[in-house]
Amino acid sequence: xxxxxxxxxxxxxxxxxxxxxxxxxxxxxxxxxxxxxxxxxxxxxxxxxxxxxxxxxxxxxxxxxxxxxxxxxxxxxxxxxxxxxxxxxxxxxxxxxxxxxxxxxxxxxxxxxxxxxxxxxxxxxxxxxxxxxxxxxxxxxxxxxxxxxxxxxxxxxxxxxxxxxxxxxxxxxxxxxxxxxxxxxxxxxxxxxxxxxxxxxxxxxxxxxxxxxxxxxxxxxxxxxxxxxxxxxxxxxxxxxxxxxxxxxxxxxxx
Length: 255
Hints:
The protein is an alpha/beta fold. The chain has helices at about 20-30, 40-50, 65-80, 105-130, 150-175, 190-200, 205-215, 225-235; strands spanning about 10, 35-40, 55-60, 85, 135-140, 180-185, 245-250.
């Protein structure tokens, strides 16, 4: 275990799998105490086991203001402070285009991806200020930077996360608050969400090859490509980095 985030306490949403799980693992390996949260309590327990059982796992529906307050209070009660928030929880739906998307699916994606991120940012602010500052890391997407005809709500929600991040960053920099906020915009990564998307296609391997070909590096990334950046943004190495959107996409948006 190294010391990059030693002494810090990190709260991770969407911690049952994907970016959230890997971020919890890398943050713990770099010295942080971690609180793993997800609506999937069993998956959270699995993540905690993966990181050696040293941490806390709590059920959290990110769309619930009351649950956010309970989780933040429990974190501070257990560890005495809160320094890092990783807003990793996210969802996608089928038929996500302007002609077919159902009202309920639009609202579901917005509630989880955008409102959930907003609630997290708001609810951790007092605890971070009491700790002398903190770092919020929001997961946006390359589909918050460019459009996709089959991801209307997803694009809109992740674009919203990007701009929300900048507003939170400006507020957190004012009046000595010292709360930083940055967004990560991943490309297509080998995560459970992407794998589920591929399996729904009539030709999963053909779609995988087509998606990989969109990246100049000729492949998809993996959760560690995001987790190591989360560690950097949570550490004091990034003490002058706030309001940024950092793209990790193998060159996808450089074309």
